[in-house]
């Protein structure tokens, strides 16, 4: 069975200030996620599922459905505020979706095979999709998942600080825990630093970080359903609370319910955390095209 690629595209990109998921960066107007889909097809994925808000479905079908026809199966999942809230009253001040693990839960009726999850606005690189496909077709199990681990130094922005999930990994390459580090940047001495409430801390440039590229058995969706109910019991009245994938993964690892392999990739990540990142992303894509990794028009 070919694995599925699930793309998280329901967020509205508050820091970036526009719907960056559909901004064209390639020479023929390709978005970042089209390069991910192209790499996934090349690696052997059989279906792509876009998680979006329902009001954007016509735009997505117009932008992507026609291009991908005959190349890979396409489906759409809608992440709505009341999805899987089981009749609970949602506070009026709650405006944004419940987070990435809730998005995965919304795939319950659509994804029944091993699947990878990625962000719509991150470029992950060919090597990452090859490794994810290999894991999902040969290793994945009900209690064995994966994170594609990136070297921290390959995931920074020159235009501001970033937040990264820094992976603590055991000798066998399995996840011990994910530590969410906010405000990571290179200081004036070129040392990678992060800030928290206790001050400034150095972090190794070779540290393995999660860029929200996961590989899951379909039973993970049911796990999200279980934990989301618990999450709502505690957090439904907190308008800023979010039910994130790393939160669920962390619970499973620490309860010894599942093993999560951190699979290292040599790939260079890039993305548009800030508007100022856009020219660099465009230049990076052009460079990959010049190297022969992609055609001028992905879908011609």
Describe this structure as you would to a colleague.
With 300 residues, the chain is of the alpha/beta class. The protein contains seven helices and 13 strands. The chain has one domain: Spore Coat Polysaccharide Biosynthesis Protein SpsA, Chain A (Alpha-Beta Complex), CATH 3.90.550. 28% of the residues lie in helices and 26% in strands. Strands 1, 2, 3, 4, 6, 7, 8, 9, 10, 11 and 12 form an eleven-stranded mixed β-sheet that branches. A two-stranded antiparallel ribbon has the order 5-13. Helix 1 crosses helix 4. About 2% of the residues have low confidence.
Itemize the secondary structure elements and their pairings.
Elements: E1 4-8, H1 32-43, E2 47-52, H2 57-68, E3 73-78, H3 100-105, E4 115-119, E5 122-123, H4 126-138, E6 144-151, E7 162-169, E8 175-186, E9 192-196, E10 199-202, E11 208-216, H5 219-235, H6 245-254, E12 259-264, E13 270-271, H7 278-290
Parallel strand pairs: 1-2, 1-4, 2-3, 6-12
Antiparallel strand pairs: 4-11, 5-13, 6-11, 7-8, 7-11, 8-9, 9-10
Helix pairs in contact: 1-4
Low-confidence stretches: 12-18
Instruction: Look at the structure and give the mean pLDDT.
Output: 92
Alpha plus pi helix count: 7
Report, as a whole number of angstroms, the end-to-end distance: 27 Å
Say what oligomer this is.
single chain
Q: What percent of residues adopt helix (DSSP H or I)?
A: 25-40%
Order of helices and strands: EHEHEHEEHEEEEEEHHEEH
How many E strands?
13
CATH architectural designation: Alpha-Beta Complex
Described by the principal axes of the CA atoms, the overall outline is: globular
CATH homologous superfamily identity: Spore Coat Polysaccharide Biosynthesis Protein SpsA, Chain A
Q: Kindly name the structural category.
A: alpha/beta
**Beta-strand share of residues:** 25-35%
CATH topology: Spore Coat Polysaccharide Biosynthesis Protein SpsA, Chain A
């Amino acid at each position: 069975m070919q694995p599925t690629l699930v793309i998280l595209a329901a967020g509205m990109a508050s820091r970036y200030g526009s719907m960056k998921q559909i901004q064209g960066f390639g020479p023929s107007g390709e978005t970042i996620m089209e390069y991910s889909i192209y790499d996934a097809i090349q690696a052997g994925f059989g279906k792509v599922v876009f998680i979006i808000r329902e009001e954007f479905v016509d735009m997505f079908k117009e932008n992507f459905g026609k291009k991908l026809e005959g190349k890979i199966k396409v489906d759409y999942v809608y992440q709505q505020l009341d999805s899987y809230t089981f009749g609970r009253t949602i506070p009026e001040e709650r405006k944004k979706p419940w987070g990435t693990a809730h998005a995965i839960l919304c795939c319950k009726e659509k994804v029944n095979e091993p699947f990878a999850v990625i962000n719509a606005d991150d470029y992950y690189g060919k090597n990452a999709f090859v490794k994810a496909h290999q894991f999902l077709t040969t290793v994945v199990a009900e209690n064995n998942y994966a994170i594609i681990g990136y070297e921290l130094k390959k995931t920074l922005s020159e235009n501001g600080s970033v937040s990264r999930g820094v992976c603590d990994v055991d000798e066998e390459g399995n996840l011990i825990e994910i530590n969410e580090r906010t405000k990571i940047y290179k200081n004036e001495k070129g040392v990678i630093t992060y800030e928290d409430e206790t001050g400034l801390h150095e972090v190794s440039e070779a540290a393995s970080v999660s860029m929200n590229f996961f590989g899951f058995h379909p039973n993970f969706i049911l796990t999200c359903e279980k934990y989301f109910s618990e999450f709502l019991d505690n957090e439904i009245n907190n308008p800023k609370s979010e039910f994130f994938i790393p939160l669920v993964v962390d619970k499973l690892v620490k309860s010894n319910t599942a093993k999560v392999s951190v699979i290292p990739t040599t790939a260079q990540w890039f993305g548009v955390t800030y508007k100022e990142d856009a020219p660099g992303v465009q230049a990076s894509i052009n460079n990959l095209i010049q190297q022969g990794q992609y055609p001028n028009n992905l879908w011609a």
